[in-house]
Each structure stands twice: as structure tokens, then as C-alpha cells.
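Example record

One chain of 204 residues, shown exactly as stored in the release files.
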Amino acid sequence: MKAYLYEAEKIPGWVTAEELMEKGEYSYNLPNNAVVVEIGAFLGRSTVMVAGALKMKRSGLVHSIDPFDASGDDFSIPVYKEIEEQLPVSLLGQFQRNIRNACLEKYVAIHKGTSESVVKTWQDPIDMLILDGDQSPKGARAAFEDWIPFLKTNGILVVHNSADRVYEKDHDGYRRVVVESVQPPQFSDVICVRMTTFARKNEE
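Predicted C-alpha cells for this chain:
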């Protein structure tokens, strides 16, 4: 697992080593042939960790959904743009490079599009759902409502940027989702590691 942590930490992003390791552990303990959906991939820092854990058990696939156009909430866009301008290739091109460099191509399926556009044709049950796309209250709520019906009973929900802290204006969407909706009886085993909330979906 530490080898993939090393690869992940080379990639620009905001998820700490502690959070990455926790995601890796959850991913490794998913059922065989697990379906993981990641809303918001950016350059693949978290993707490498999750897909790396699946590769270790030789089973499962991460579906990474991102428009790869530096879009998002008003606070995030300038940050994304600044990073994008320093890259030798496009955001998508760099994401693909990062996955290839970690030898994880067989464990990652790329869906270039928004959460809203991809969910329209989605049909498969999900073992782990990772929410880290549009951070605005509207965008975060829409992603949660659209995708949570696909998460299996006992499936794992991972919500980035959701800790109890002071947020920039309209950058607290996922914190609101956790406070308002990631609670018993729908969810159990709710924990927060640094900035990321993990929870298990209960039987409806």
C-alpha cells in the first residue's frame, strides 16, 4: 500500500497521506470485483491510491468521473486553473499519465463528463462512492442525491472536504451533505479522518 501512497503523493492535490491510507484500506477490504465510482478526480491523487488497493487484490474497477476542464465552485476554479497552466499537457492528459505511471490502467475507467451527465446512463450497483466534485452546496447536494441510490447496502460512502471547519463562501457543499444527510439511520460507522468523512450505508 505504501508504494501507491508514494505514487499518489507525487500528484498535486489536497488529500493528505492519512486520508489516502484510510481510503486505501477501505478499498482493499471491498468485495471482489468491486465497483468504485469517484466523482471528481482532478489529476488522480486519490484515484491512484484506490486503484492501487484494488490492484493489490487483483479485483475491481474505479470509474473516475470528471469533466477535466478546471470547472467547479467559484473558490476552486482559480486554483485549478493555476495548476492547469503549469502542466505540459491537458488535465485529462496528465491524469492519464499519472495512472499510466502507476501501472493502473486496467483498474481505472475514465468518464469525461459531469456527475449529472454521466449518471443519466448509469445502471450498475456501487460498492464504494467517492464524492469530491463540485464543492458548491448545489453541486454537492445534486451529486449525493443522484448517486446514493446506486450505493449498495453496506457500501462505503467517502465524502471529501467535509470536516467541521470554517469554509470559504459556497465551498462547504460536502460539509452540508454530511451534517444534513450522512447520519443514522441511513448511515452508520461514520468517521472523519482529517478532511474526509467515511460512512457505511445501511439497509433501507
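Notes: The longest helix spans residues 17-28.
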